[in-house]
Design a protein that fits this description.
With 285 residues, this protein is α+β, with helices and mostly antiparallel strands. It has two domains: 157 residues, Immunoglobulin-like, CATH 2.60.40; 114 residues, 2-Layer Sandwich (60s Ribosomal Protein L30, Chain: A), CATH 3.30.1330. It is built from seven helices and 14 strands. The chain has a five-stranded mixed sheet with strand order 1-10-9-6-7. Strands 2-3-4-5-8 form a five-stranded antiparallel sheet, with helices on one face. The longest helix has 21 residues. The protein is elongated and about 80 Å long.
């Protein structure tokens, strides 16, 4: 049943394509541009008179694809995404990838990671990922936008080399971190060290990070002075570990607060477990 439904979508797409307005790069115009760094790999193609097709793989994330029309009115009703043969590949069967909704503010089509991976595989095989919308500028004609596979394989090799050099995390993933501690303990666990390893690796690679704030906290079990002391030990333990990993001491601000700033009320064991923590906050320029 599902196969028939998918097949009907594909057949409808191709039936409508006879009357569709189509945008795609010609063989001579199709170019792939790669912007590569340790933080992201961006592989894009300009679609003449329409906009940009962009694969973006950010450090610590899965690849995503965004189709960015110059005007944001084309995909109000979403689009169907199909991998189809190029005009010079007669006889190759199309493959339905999925349905895509437009982003509300921009009108861009954002393709989820698994479908973006399917698009990369299709392009590598010489197929053209094609988006079909039911109408173009409110007319009876449908809209078809194709991403060309011309010159893709050589660009893909450079893209793969870029992704191999990405950091394991991005700024959003390490900018705010909480390291938790057992009751009355301040020594770091193996899991905590692994997390701090990632933070230190990122900081040493991003010159825009200018400050690291380390704040120690406790739950409310025990006397306040004792809680303040153990929060101090926790914060100093984290700071010492970061310095040992190569973070400059003058970048780090270490503070400790005892039980003064619980993240949740200290009214259950689960909540007290969350309050025994050291937070690490990165600050950029």
């Amino acid at each position: 049943m599902l196969f028939r439904f998918v097949l009907s979508l594909v057949l409808v797409s191709f039936a409508v394509s006879v009357q569709a307005v189509t945008f795609r790069s010609s063989i001579d115009d199709a170019k792939w541009e790669l912007e590569a760094s340790k933080f992201s790999c961006r592989l894009s193609q300009l679609i003449p008179s329409f906009g940009d097709a962009v694969f973006e793989h950010e450090a610590g994330e899965s690849v995503r694809f965004v189709l960015k029309p110059t005007e944001n009115i084309h995909f109000d009703k979403g689009a169907k995404l199909v991998a189809e043969a190029a005009p010079w590949q007669p006889g190759m069967s199309p493959r339905f990838i999925g349905s895509v909704k437009a982003m509300e503010r921009t009108g861009h089509l954002s393709v989820k990671p698994d479908h973006a991976q399917n698009m990369l595989a299709a392009l590598y095989k010489g197929l053209m990922p094609t988006f079909t919308a039911p109408e173009w500028y409110g007319t009876d004609e449908s809209l078809r936008v194709s991403v060309s596979a011309v010159n893709f394989q050589s660009a893909y090799s450079d893209y793969v080399a870029c992704t191999a050099g990405l950091l394991p995390v991005n700024y959003r993933q390490v900018a705010r971190t909480a390291i938790l501690f057992p009751s009355a303990q301040w020594r770091l666990s193996d899991t905590s060290r692994e997390r701090l390893d990632l933070i230190a690796l990122y900081v040493k690679n991003d010159d825009s990070v200018k400050g690291v704030f380390v704040d120690g906290h406790s739950d409310n079990m025990g006397r306040r002075l004792m809680n303040r002391d153990i929060s101090k030990r926790r914060a100093e333990e984290v700071t010492a570990y970061l310095i040992n990993l190569g973070i400059e001491p003058n970048m780090i601000t270490t503070r400790y607060h005892g039980e003064r700033y619980p993240v949740v009320k200290n009214n259950s064991k689960k909540n007290r477990d969350r309050n025994r923590r050291v937070t690490i906050r990165l600050e950029r320029d």
